[in-house]
Amino acid sequence: MRIKILKSLVFATAIFLTGCSIKEPVKPQAVNFTIISPMIKINDAGFIKTTKNSTKLQVYSSGMAIFEISIIDRICMNGVCKDELKFNQEFFGRLHYRGFLNDILKSNPIYSSRNLVTTDCGFEQNLSYLTYKICNNETFYKDSKNKIKMLIRNIH
Hints:
By secondary structure, the protein is an alpha+beta fold. The chain has three helices and eleven strands, in the order αββββββααβββββ. The chain starts with a helix and ends with a strand.
């Protein structure tokens, strides 16, 4: 009887511990990432990895990681982490809302879908000096005031 109880206890503990250790699968999306801004200029291939609570962009050149942005509760660029609003001010030259860059990397509408117009291949938004378009497998963002262009093309 003791052996059955001990086996049951070991089995229950093993199930409990393995259930807690299973991580959410991450399916990276291969992309061609281009950004032109006063702060940085990049045009190379990389990956966007998204989970329920995080987004990570890694860009490579000649097989070496040259640029990385990680978004969890803060935004980390090449290992330097900042509050999202401070990052937005420095990177985009404007205090965009929390989650702004995450929305772009995930090809979600920005600014609560304000001025969203559905197109044959996706949607576009024109907000003052911001142009944001999603068409098929391409995300295009342009800030004409701060001279920032970002293009993300999904690679199949």
